[in-house]
Specification:
- The structure is a homotetramer of 394-residue chains.
- By secondary structure, chain A is α/β, with parallel strands linked by helices.
- Chain A folds into two domains: 9-16 and 266-393, Aspartate Aminotransferase, domain 1 (Alpha-Beta Complex), CATH 3.90.1150.10; 20-263, Type I PLP-dependent aspartate aminotransferase-like (Major domain) (Aspartate Aminotransferase, domain 2, 3-Layer(aba) Sandwich), CATH 3.40.640.
- Chain A is built from 14 helices and 14 strands.
- In chain A, a hairpin with a 4-residue loop joins strand 6 (143-144) and strand 7.
């Protein structure tokens, strides 16, 4: 309708606001992906990305968005007809399940209510009952982007170990990587699936598989027919900083910058920043007398917050009005949560005043759309931010 | 100290937040400023800038920042020893006065208290007393950037006319152009001085003189010794879209874009947007129990708001803490207002949530710095924004 | 060693020199890929790309490089165990063959000598002998990037029709799209595979499948297990300008610009420009007394020229010295042509003086590396360019 | 007419081809020019620019193009009515003379034929005859951009010293800075005038005065009425990395990058590169049987080459055809050389193949425009480049 001025508030839980420094890096001439300059870039990002997954093993970088890396995890390690155990945590766990089904896998689901994380006890129980070791993999989403609920990955690992089960542990960290503490090696994960457009602050178009030795062994001899998603030529070429087919060179420029930026801030500081912003958001939600979708205090996501509409519906109209009136994109409820929740992304390249603007947009939207709520949520959130600011501590 | 993440809030009253569209335009290869492609650009910006000053006369574009255009106004039309009448409205009026003095002009000042605009009655009185017509120019700042107070230019024009005095009317619109309604021709101004880095949303480095026929006539035969700031070769070369010496080509790319953006939004809409954001800011200030420097309800600036520290000092510490804690730059008190006020810029490429973030930053800063204030200012401002949003009217 | 100055000459046959206009488009903030602004972008590029493939059917845009689109062509239409007929024309035809094998297809190859295009007579013969209609697809590379030889696609279509065979015709146009005349519908192709980083002047990271109704029908009910490369959800979501999973948003900004640029120049003019530059290059090669790899006058590629080393080897040393001395990347000989040829890319965003610089770099490299050659090639090429310049005709 | 493809060849002697790295630096958000982040930038560029002028004294950076710095040199040190001695070397020396005249200076000119540099003997003679020490400054252009002739600055210094004359030595290095060896301190220059858009590889919009203690002393107490060009507030504010009025912040980002790039290559290497490219250009000119405007073997410019049209005219038509046919901008003959010469810029961010493309464009233009010439110039230039390439020496 009217020309937009100022900066759009992209507060969906990814893609996130891409910093200028990364955009400018991407805006550099494409180079020969077979030449020596590229090899330096390749070696740098292939080494650097390991520090983000906290793994000593190689990480495969795919020139495609996260859904490709989901598929890669499955086709490299499993065979048609294999059984997998999937913890339902929300819409994205279910999309991954559907993908597994389309690829011919036999998915056994541990149903969830979308308001809690994956249940380690159920996983252990299911695996104990799998005497025939039919289950080849346990699939869990670390930070369920559709609900704002995280799952306890070390506890899932422990559950598998308790059951003495050899299944691979596959974890989707698409919306937690670079935002919430995650450790591929230390937590004993076999395949971790990541993407570029969330905590890594990049545009979409790159995705990742961190792999354990056990996963590599499975891929060496097994897996489904595959070509572009095959780890093996990736790992071979990667030893010299190259890729077996044309990589997404310009996004790799951005990846180099993103890794540098995360380390300049420090991963610990990055996680603490996300935790503080998430806490402020939850304070606002409570202050408005509203409910987060997540019902488990220990499982709140630090990357996004899903807010339940008090009347059970109207979230889509609310989001539409916020977009129209305040030029802010919020995340929709997905799947069974459609129209029932909206999601606030507070991850990536972000700071206190961007969060304040975001929460103010929600606050004004609640007024505009006549959503029943209590005044005061924003004020309480800001007081928290003020009290916990670096300056306050000084 | 800590790595900054997210976007800096540049809420000084200029330079303002430069939109990506303008930055990308500037980020284009420099071209031959004597070639046909440049001529098109030159013609386009020289024609376009007239629509912003609302004049049918030519506008001179200087490849330098606003201070150069201040000097150009003086050296093209006046001679050493000439008397000029200057309306003191704040720090920038005084800097212009000092410049006039350095250039050998004889400056008569109408003192001001920095909390009101120029007084038309005083201007009329001073001119009436100038029987010898010694005064060659009346110098006024339209929007005094150091105080957030505007002056009524048509009333000043009327005052000059009432006195039947031939003095030129010179107006500084550096921080109002593209933010607050201004009409060079209709308001009978002789020389208008503008800059690029405020409402035009450009980086600093370009400045402007809009000129009346009377000013041109003065320049044709008079003025001081001058070269780079001389209007005459500028006007000659400009007829063909060129400049007499190397222009700031890349900033002209940005200027073309800025003019287009202002017209896409519509100048009326641009001014209404600034008025609404200024009103919201004043509501916040009042809600905090604080005082704006401007004391005249009709003279509030729509581009910035200067806020008086309740204890009479501490503004610099306050700004420093806001910068440190929340990565927001606020404007300092200047000259006699040093440490007594801080200034909030709400002009240029801006929107509701950027304003909300800005006001939240001030709100949290007041908490952090223990500035005596009442809670509630931000909430009242947001309610006003919600009620007056485009969506609210729908 | 030494710091590079000036602009690198990226004269491999893709990725090509990305124009500033496209790089600046990519360097824009990522937006919500589920929102209305994205839908406009999506509709625009999905409609626009059809004009480049010259098809009225939909074109699927994958957020991955060309190899993914190769795989998509196969997995959407064929089943494990299906036979396909592949025309060997060079290294890339062979990589596609290997991929088909890895996916469980039964590849029958029509061997080639890498110096001629695919032979329609052999195709017709092979299909006539396939009485059982085991062959489900004929796979041809339109412009073999490894050799600089094109294949006559309409003649292949005719051959299939002559044999009355129902096999699908699949054509790789990765290095011809946007450089050499190609018409998906008119030429009766079933699946055309394209990429972004050649004639489309984009960085790598997007690829395409143009599809016939027949191919769509095959995909509807058949194909292999697949998910990210599945056409069906792509076509569904695409009706509204969306994608079933996160697209490569920023590259789509570039694609919109690339399509606009091709039409501003005019596709006919684009093809004529490539033809003229290719002719100039061949004149230079002949003038140097060297041989192109392509031996068939009607099959020379207009996108690149492969030059045979006169002594049968040394191409890699030659390329390395050209890179080191003149900062120009040339294409290597691949597969069985390793070290025997070098390839000059003259496609994409290119003009006469860029070609002149490129040929000068080859000319000086021949001197530096003591490659036996006749002087004069460059001069003859430039005379041709001068005579055929737009200005010459004026 | 037709859409341009590929990269424009900007081969005027400035503005030069701005490297991507510098354009991307400029394309960053403008910051508060009164804040701590700016102070770091300011200190860095104010220190860095001294290394380019090779001076221990401060260098003033003006937010305007070179003509402003010409004026600054005069108005800071001289008074109306002062005599200055100007060495005529071409169009730009004469423009500087005209400026001096407009500012009320009394210019005594040592006439030149535009084909040789300034004559030290004439300078010495003129100063010896100035018994009354009326002459306050000697004005010389180091590299006369309109002719491609350099002047021997140390010899001019020696001439002044021989005459025992106290005149200030003012040197314009606008088109030599960053391309041709120059040493403000070692050569005893009092005011050096530089610009951003030549060897510094920046867009136009910044200019410089390097100043000796003697010049500073003159400015402290003397000079003309001045304000924006006044050194004194610049030097004061600069001590802390600031500027007395709004600087051209975004161009300063570029300056920081430019200084870094020159040092990464090494100033000696930069000068050697320019010398080699200039020599190659002169070889081409000789090989075409054409004449350079410069007639003195020791005074050839390494930044540009001016070529005399063999028939005495037609240069403008020639340039126009080259622009139209080959998208290359060449420099025009200026002043008395109008239409009689064209100028080839080979300075700034440049390399062998860019030069080869440039010379090829001239070569083809000579053919197109039927300019009488001998074939072979380009070939000889390329042979020189090949023989002297880094690789050749290996």
């Amino acid at each position: 309708m009217t020309a937009r001025t100022g900066r759009h508030f992209l507060q969906i839980p990814g893609p996130t606001n891409v910093p200028d420094r990364i955009l400018r890096a991407i805006d550099n001439p494409t180079i020969d992906h077979r030449g020596p300059t590229f090899a330096e870039l390749g070696r740098e990002v292939l080494a650097g990305i390991k520090t983000i997954f906290v793994t000593d093993n190689p990480v495969v970088i795919f020139p495609t968005s996260g859904t490709g890396a989901w598929e890669a995890a499955l086709v490299n390690t499993l065979s048609a007809g294999d059984a997998v155990l999937l913890c339902e945590t929300g819409h994205f766990s279910n999309l991954w399940r559907e993908m597994a089904g389309r690829l011919g896998l036999n998915v056994e689901t541990l149903d969830g209510d979308w308001r809690h994380g994956a249940d380690p006890a159920s996983v252990e129980e299911a695996l104990r009952q799998d005497g025939g070791r039919r289950i080849k993999a346990v699939m869990v989403v670390h930070n369920e982007t559709s609900t704002g609920v995280t799952s306890n990955i070390p506890a899932i690992r422990q559950a598998i170990d308790n059951a003495g089960h050899p299944a691979l542990l596959m974890v989707d960290v698409i919306s937690s990587l670079g935002s919430i503490d995650y450790r591929h090696d230390a937590w004993g994960v076999d395949v971790t699936v990541g993407g570029s457009q969330k905590g890594l602050m990049l545009p979409p178009g790159l995705s990742f598989n961190a792999v354990s030795d056990k996963a590599l062994a499975a891929a060496e001899t097994g897996g489904m027919p595959r070509s572009v998603l095959d780890w093996r030529p990736m790992l071979d070429a990667g030893k010299n900083g190259f890729f077996p087919y044309t990589p997404s060179t310009n996004l790799l420029y951005g990846l180099r910058e993103a890794i540098a930026m995360l380390h300049e801030e420090g991963l610990e500081a990055v996680f603490a920043r996300h935790a503080r912003h998430a806490e402020a958001t939850r304070i606002a939600v409570r202050g408005w007398g509203l409910e987060t979708l997540c019902q488990s205090p220990n499982e709140h996501s630090n990357a996004l917050t899903a807010v339940v509409m008090p009347n059970g519906s109207g979230a889509d109209d609310f989001r539409k009005r916020v977009l129209s009136a305040f030029d802010m994109s919020l995340g929709a409820g997905l799947g069974r949560m459609t129209d029932r929740i909206f999601r606030i992304g507070h991850l990536g390249s972000f700071n206190d005043l961007m969060l304040a603007g975001t929460l103010a947009g929600v606050d004004m939207g609640l007024q505009l759309a006549d959503v029943p709520h209590t005044r005061g949520g924003l004020d309480q959130a800001l007081s928290f931010l003020a009290k916990t600011s670096a300056e306050a501590g000084a």
